[in-house]
Every structure is written in C-alpha cells, then in structure tokens.
C-alpha cells in the first residue's frame, strides 16, 4: 500500500515532470565528444557550437522550471489565503446566525406579548365601563 507523498516529495515529482532531462543529457554527451583528442579543429568548433546551443536549451528549460516553481508558490499562497478568507466568512456567518437567532427570539416574544395584549384589550372592551355600570 503506497503512502501519500510528502509535500517535499510532491515538489520533487513535479520538478521531474516539468524539467526534461533529455536536453541536459544531450548537452553532457556533446561536452564529452569535445574532450576526445582525435577531433579536427573544424569538428571541434562544430561540436563546441552545438554544445553552446544545447547549453542554451538547458538554461531555457531551467528558467521555465524556475517560473513554474514561482507560479506554484504563488498559487499555493493564493489558495491558503482563499482558505483563510472562507474560514473567516464561515465564522462570521456563524456569529451572524447566533445574533439573528437571538433577534428572532426577541421578535417572537414581542409578537406573543402583543397578541396577548390585544386579546386582553378585546376582553376588557367587551365589558362596559365603570361609569356605565355605576349609573
């Protein structure tokens, strides 16, 4: 059973996927061909130029890799910020819900009291006033 890779292993795997080592190996082979003693000056010059081209390709790949890594870091930071923002909003929403529940209970209590008051007022109005009963 394979375990989940750690973040460092994940970065290494991503780097291997992003950075193609073929150009580096090709550059290394070109370098080795230059070190052979039996090459003529023109062959040596050609091999040197090809080596420089391959070296520039490796440099370009490394720059691409660095840009991809920086993008990964920015995306990670943005993701963490977004997670923190969402957690804050959830906490704020929970606090709002608690406040609104209290407001709802108070409004329900006021309504209940008003209805009771209205019922009592109706019952009182059914009876005649004291003045009428004294006369």
Automatic annotation (TrEMBL):
The lineage of its organism: Eukaryota, Fungi, Fungi incertae sedis, Chytridiomycota, Chytridiomycota incertae sedis. Keywords: Coiled coil, Nucleus. Residues 76-110 form a coiled coil. This is THO complex subunit 7. One of its GO terms (biological process) is mRNA processing. It is found in: Nucleus. It comes from Rhizophlyctis rosea. It holds the Pfam family THOC7. InterPro entries: THOC7/Mft1. Signal peptide: none annotated. GO terms for cellular component: THO complex part of transcription export complex.
């Amino acid at each position: 059973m394979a375990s989940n890779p750690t973040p460092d292993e994940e970065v290494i795997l991503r780097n291997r996927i992003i950075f193609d080592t073929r150009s580096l190996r090709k550059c290394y082979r070109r370098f080795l061909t230059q070190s052979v003693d039996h090459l003529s000056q023109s062959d040596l010059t050609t091999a040197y130029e090809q080596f420089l081209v391959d070296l520039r390709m490796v440099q370009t790949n490394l720059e691409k890799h660095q840009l991809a890594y920086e993008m990964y870091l920015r995306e990670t930071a943005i993701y963490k910020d977004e997670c923190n923002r969402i957690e804050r909003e959830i906490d704020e929403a929970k606090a709002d819900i608690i406040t609104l529940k209290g407001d709802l209970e108070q409004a329900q209590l006021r309504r209940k009291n008003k209805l009771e008051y209205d019922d009592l007022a109706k019952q009182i109005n059914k009876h005649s006033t004291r003045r009428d009963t004294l006369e």
